[in-house]
Design a protein that fits this description.
The complex is a heterotrimer of chains A (306), B (308) and C (345). With 306 residues, chain A is mostly helical. Chain A is built from twelve helices and no strands. The chains are: A mainly alpha (306), B mainly alpha (308), C alpha/beta (345).
């Protein structure tokens, strides 16, 4: 899987009609063909494409990600600087939205027509229709400009030393991502809980005289989690995608803004490495989800054997 | 199976009648129709061309003259939002159609033939799904360049997996059905069995996926354009109008420049989702059905009453 | 307390009506179901699927789906010296919960879906025990293992730790029985416990149930559509059709001498090893109508060979044909016999 992705990323980038070399030199220098050829040679752009791919792969595997065409900076340096910013956002939003969605979804499913149910249905319908970044803009407008409670963006402002200094900076971007993620997740958890409530073993549990809260907690919740976990794995790419928009809205110096800048400037080495990295992160994440799933469902754990 | 056959017998008229009796379907259809009409007659409604520049009246708030205010060049926002809808809806519908076409063809083929072809296509869909769509789109855009048609192609290429999976799943279960066995016994060709006989039975998930994809693509267009990488800025789309909001001053002081386009997206997408829900109710026999109500209810009671 | 409820009746249903709300309509699923079940008896409730057998069980347990409710009638359950009106207890309240599992155990049909796939079977049985008795987890475990052994589950200590999907259908049904009986309830309701099982396993399970009933003096309600089973285990039979009890009596009365046209047809459709091979098995003509369709008169009228106009005019009442043998049919003569049919019915 990882190899296929890497190959796809690499060859796709080479299909581009834009010569990467043109993106990095001023237009008046482009006429100097001797100079161009030399640059090309130095950057290895003249080698056979398979060789280029293998070299690239080898470099990546050894941690040498190459240089940004745009800034000449080492890509590993850029990543070291930017990756934590994105991870902070995405992971916090992931955890928050999962906890919120599971709680709300469980209550919504357990008591159809109750407050939690109504709330989650409205959230589910409206949340899906509103673009992520609009949520961000709206939050920004209200909380940063109208009432000025929270900063409008940037991860670290001058003078903010401790975590608690920086804490307010996180609230809006994390809230935006969480809300964006929440809609689908709640809807799904609620449906999953409703499905589970209709399963026969819930009736069995009730026939034992087990109190409702225990039925919900011990029987319904656990069996509803499996499908939600699968969805979570599928939503992860979207969350990463969403973080690109949210980072742009809040001028967050993360991977998202990096890749936007790279795409705008046709900075292929950066695009390739970042895509590769994101793919890897998502592969690892879905692997983790599989593990969690097998813990939840003994049938998966034993590979369905009898 | 019986239900499926009855579905087939039911005419388009029953289907439309049922949809018109479905509350969310009606609300959704109303929203969508009104918005499409408005965007088609954008200039007539607003009274101004979307590109008419009037710098003296730049960045005016909403007023009776300009219901949605004006932008920095004094262009009327109402006119721009309405005509922007034209492009956004166009992108959403065409891209969704193409994505569904790809998904359906691949899903039908893979689902019916199974085996190697199936596992290859399945892998491919997993591959595309693993990847954040937005990043995929960004890569494609950087390769193909910007332009409304490129955006459509990119969406189609990155958005076919849902339909593919649905259709493939349906085919998996349908290919073992008696009527397909019979087709094979008659010696019908594979394409004929796949596309003439089985495919009509899988129409409902395809139709539902079509509407949902429209919603997804309209939102995706907005995001992409907001980043400045979608449809070229010279064409107003809902997403392009939102670019203004990249500027903090606009977010702070000129709210009408981004609230109205964003609201338009939200309302339209809401409408599409309503139609999707309505279609699902009407088309999916497991939810509600085209079959006479009482029979369905008995089936339901049978399920509730005696276990199986 | 109600005078007519005698202490030796463990369960007494008095014209219980159950209605389901489906979309905008109300479906009348149980119609005036009355059943009196003496302590220590073995009652079989038979009928086609959809006739309301399972709904009856769910109504007793107060486990009807959310869209269903007991709209009128009473369900009396005698517990020690007390007689409780089950339908007036709060559905998930403490009192009802103490009865569920503690005083009335329930065995379900589809064991794979009725057992929680994510929990070990031992824990699922122990859950019931821990709910009703103030004992430690270790004690509960010992008792569960003991019951497993008694129920013929091999290697019970190890099987305690297993998950439902690791069991065969028959073994899962034994687990189900363990869940229903671990708290020594007075009444056990078994809802088609053997339908999903092989014939040989069916026999084992039925023997097990019968032994339980005899040795522990428990009362059993067995819901089934298998007439052959009925003759083996039951002492009383209630035949249900479309939400109504159409015939009720001792097993010999109902099976050897069925009076209701529906029961007759049902009996005629049971294959009999002794029967003349040239005599064709009879089937009940027509399909079970929907509960929404029949409104007035006898529910069976549409399929009944004895039908006359009067059958469709008003609700048919129960007639006593013999002591303890009630039939819901107006075509019976003074001797409680159906008229002889002339010509090919």
């Amino acid at each position: 899987m990882a190899f296929t992705i890497s190959a796809l990323i690499f060859f796709a980038s080479r299909l581009s009609p834009i010569d990467p070399i043109l993106a990095m030199i001023p237009p008046d220098m482009a006429s100097d063909s001797a100079n161009l050829a030399q640059l090309r040679e130095e950057l290895g752009l003249n080698d056979h494409i398979i060789l280029q791919y293998l070299t690239w792969l080898k470099n990546i595997a050894t941690g040498d990600f190459g240089y940004s065409l745009q800034s000449g900076q080492q890509i590993s340096e850029i990543l070291a600087l930017r990756m934590p910013a994105t991870l902070e956002l995405v992971l916090t939003a992931l955890i928050l939205s999962t906890i919120l969605a599971l709680t709300l979804g469980l209550f919504a499913g357990a008591k159809k027509g109750g407050i939690a149910d109504k709330l989650s249905r409205v959230l589910g319908v409206v949340g899906i229709a509103i673009p992520d970044f609009f949520i961000g803009l709206a939050l920004l407008n209200v909380f940063a400009y109208r009432v000025s409670w929270l900063p409008s963006g940037n991860r670290v402002a001058p003078g903010q030393i401790t975590f608690w200094d920086r804490f307010p900076n996180y609230i809006l971007p994390v809230a935006t991502l969480t809300i964006a993620m929440l809609a689908v997740l709640i809807r799904y958890t609620r449906n999953s809980v409703l499905d589970t409530l209709n399963r026969d073993f819930v009736k069995t549990a009730r026939s034992k005289g087990v109190p409702e809260w225990r039925v919900l907690y011990s029987h319904v919740f656990r069996n509803s989690l499996g499908p939600v976990m699968v969805l979570l794995a599928f939503r992860l790419p979207l969350l990463v995608g969403g973080s690109i928009l949210v980072e742009t809205v809040f001028q967050w110096p993360g991977i998202g803004t990096t890749i936007i800048a790279a795409v705008t400037a046709s900075d292929y080495p950066v695009i390739m490495v970042v895509s590769m990295l994101i793919a890897m992160v998502i592969l690892v994440a879905s692997f983790l989800v599989d593990i969690v799933k097998s813990i939840l469902d003994p049938r998966v754990r034993l590979g369905g054997s009898n | 199976m019986q239900k499926k056959k009855q579905d087939q017998q039911s005419t388009a008229r029953i289907f439309i009648r049922n949809l018109l009796h479905n509350p969310s379907g009606v609300i959704g259809l109303t929203i969508i129709s009104i918005m499409i009409l408005c965007s088609v007659f954008a200039v007539q409604i607003a009274g101004v061309e979307p590109e008419y520049i009037d710098p003296i009246n730049g960045r005016l708030g909403p007023s009776l003259d300009h219901l949605m205010g004006t932008d920095q060049l004094g262009r009327d926002m109402l006119s721009r939002v309405l005509s922007g809808g034209r492009q956004s809806i166009y992108v959403g519908v065409i891209a969704s159609f193409l994505a569904n076409l790809i998904g359906t063809i691949l899903g039908a083929t893979a689902g019916y033939l199974g085996g190697k072809i199936d596992s290859v296509v399945m892998r491919l869909s997993e591959l595309v799904m693993t990847f954040p769509q937005l990043i995929l789109v960004l890569i494609f855009v950087s390769l193909l360049g910007q332009g409304i048609n490129n955006v459509i192609i990119v969406f189609a290429l990155t958005g076919w997996m849902t339909t593919f999976r649905l259709v493939r799943g349906e085919f998996f279960s349908l290919r073992e059905e008696a009527f397909v066995e019979a087709d094979r016994a008659f010696g019908f060709s594979k394409p004929r069995i796949i596309f003439r006989h089985i495919l009509p039975n899988t129409l409902s998930p395809i139709v539902v996926a079509f509407t949902i994809n429209i919603a997804i693509f309209i939102i995706a267009e907005a995001g992409l354009s907001f980043l400045g990488l979608g449809v070229p800025v010279t064409t107003p789309t809902w997403g392009n109008l939102l670019i203004a909001a990249q500027n903090p001053v606009v977010v702070d002081e000129y709210w009408w420049l981004w609230v109205f386009p964003a609201m338009s997206i939200a309302i339209f997408v809401l409408g599409v989702n309503f139609v999707g829900d309505g279609l699902r109710d009407v088309l999916d026999p497991r939810h509600k059905s085209l079959i006479a109500k009482s029979k369905w209810k008995v089936a339901l009671v049978g399920r509730l009453g005696s276990k199986k | 307390m109600n005078q007519s409820t005698s202490k030796d009746l463990i369960l007494d249903l008095k014209s219980v009506n159950v209605k389901f709300k489906v979309e905008d309509d109300t479906l009348h699923i149980l119609r005036d179901v009355s059943l009196s079940i003496p302590r220590g008896s073995f009652l079989c409730v038979v009928g086609e699927s959809g006739c309301g057998k399972s709904v009856t069980a769910q109504a007793i347990m107060q486990l009807l789906p959310d869209n269903g409710e007991v709209s009128s009638g009473d369900i009396y359950f005698s517990q020690g010296d007390q007689v409780l009106k089950l339908n007036e207890l709060e559905k998930f309240g403490k009192q009802m919960r103490d009865i569920r599992g503690g005083k009335i155990g329930m065995i379900f049909q589809d064991t794979l879906s009725s057992l929680n796939p994510a929990h070990k079977v031992g824990r699922q049985v122990a859950e019931s025990l821990l709910q009703h008795f103030p004992i430690s987890k270790d004690e509960a475990r010992t008792r569960v293992v003991e019951l497993f052994r008694k129920l013929g589950i091999p290697d019970p200590e190890r099987r305690y730790e297993a998950y439902p999907h690791e069991f065969s259908g028959g073994m899962r049904q034994r687990v189900m029985i363990a869940i229903a009986t671990i708290c020594e309830p007075d009444l056990v309701i078994a809802d088609e416990p053997t339908t999903a099982l092989d014939v040989t396993i069916q026999a084992q399970i039925m023997t097990l149930l019968k032994d339980l009933q005899k040795s522990a003096g428990k009362t059993f309600i067995l819901i089934t559509h298998n007439m052959a089973l009925v003759s083996e285990v039951a002492d009383h039979v209630a035949v249900m059709y479309l939400g109504r009890v159409v015939e009720y009596g001792a097993v010999d009365q109902v099976l050897r001498d069925p009076r209701h046209p529906y029961t007759k047809a049902l009996m005629a459709s049971v294959p009999n090893l002794d029967a003349d091979k040239n005599v064709e098995l009879q089937t009940v003509d027509g399909q079970t109508p929907s509960p929404a369709e029949v409104t007035v008169g006898c529910e069976f009228a549409g399929r009944c060979p004895y039908v006359i106009a009067a059958c469709r005019e008003k609700t048919i009442e129960m007639t006593r044909v013999n002591p303890g043998h009630d039939v819901r049919c107006i075509r019976l003569d003074a001797n409680g016999k159906l008229p002889v049919l002339t010509g090919g019915a």
